[in-house]
Each structure stands twice: as structure tokens, then as C-alpha cells.
Design brief:
The protein is an alpha/beta fold. 31% of the residues lie in helices and 22% in strands. The strands form four sheets. Strands 1-12-7-4 form a four-stranded parallel beta sheet, sandwiched between helices. A four-stranded mixed beta sheet has the order 8-5-6-9. The longest helix is centred in the N-terminal third of the chain and has 18 residues.
Amino acid sequence: MTEARNDRATILASIRMALGEGQAPAAIAAEYGAIPRGYAQSSVLGRHALIELFVDRLLEYDAGVYRIGPDAIAETVAEVLTRRGKRGMAVPAGLPGAWLPQGFLFSEADRYSADQLNAMEGVLSGCTVAIAETGSIVLQNVDGQGPRILSLVPDYHLCVVFADQVVATVPESFTRIEATLPTTFISGPSATADIEMTRIKGVHGPRFFDVIVVED
């Protein structure tokens, strides 16, 4: 019994320490700042190599990739939607109108319910930052990206990423993320192999994911 009490006391003491109970905020910040950070936080890759790595990761994840110049966004959106058989898309508030081609129905969907979004053919959005090493795209609840539900419910997502939004590593991405906003990391179409080791797409997000990479 004594041993069990000691174990319990040790566990509770560890929890209190982790929560910073009894420590001043400055002491907690100093302790956090003293943690060694020997991992790679940046990259020596040039811009071209960085984009190539990002595209390679996207393709490895089974995402569609379209590389274009800055004047071809609307044209490429029309091409991708036509290829996918889409007639209309949900879009977040604040998405640039110049991205939206004629001949398709685009519905501002920030206030849509899950049922309404589930009935949409997909969502078109921008992003906050993209990470080359992991092939990840980061969305936040801002103009042109919208609330998290937009990227989680529709079965298809088309995202526009500009070359200057691509960084090499996850630590680099944190410098561009607003810490107080809801954030979603996307790395290719949603999939899992947790159930009987069978890969299933569309478990917690869109089954189909395309990326338009806008380069100078």
C-alpha cells in the first residue's frame, strides 16, 4: 500500500510540474527556453529545389498538382473543375474574385452547416503556409481560408498555394501561423490504415485533393 501511495504521489508531482503549478510565468518561460533545440529548423534549399520537394511530396500523397504562372489561376481552376466534373464549389469569405472563373457556381460557405457542406461538390481555398519536407498545407480561419469545417466536410478540396508561401520545415511554418486562430494541417487526401491495415480514404477530411502551385 505504501508503494502504491508513493507511486501516486510521484505521478501527481510530475503532473503538477508539467502544469507549472507553483511556478511563476517567467520561470516557466525560462525553463521552456532552455530546452535544447538541435533539430533542423530551416533549410539550405533554393527556391526552385524547395518547390520541387513540395510537389514531390504532394504527388507521393496522391494529390493532384498543377504548376502555373500568376495570371492563370482562374483558367486553371476552370480546367481542374472541368476535369473533376464539378459544376460549383463552396468558397470561404474573402477569397479573391479573380480566382473564380465564369461558368461555375461558387457559394460563400463560412456559415454553412455540416449538412450543407456535405451536399457541396467541394471547396476552393487559399492557405497560410505550406511545408515542403512534409508536403503539408496549413489553413487558418482567415479570409480566403475560412473556418475549419470547410476543409473537413466536403469530399473534394482544391487549394491555391503561392511559391512564396512554401517553407522547408515545420518549425519555419510556425513563424507564419497566428497562434490564436484555429489551424488545420493537410497532407494530401484524408486516409487511414488503422482498420485492419486497409487504406481507407476520406476518414477525417476530403478523399480528393488538388493543389494549384503558383510560381513567378
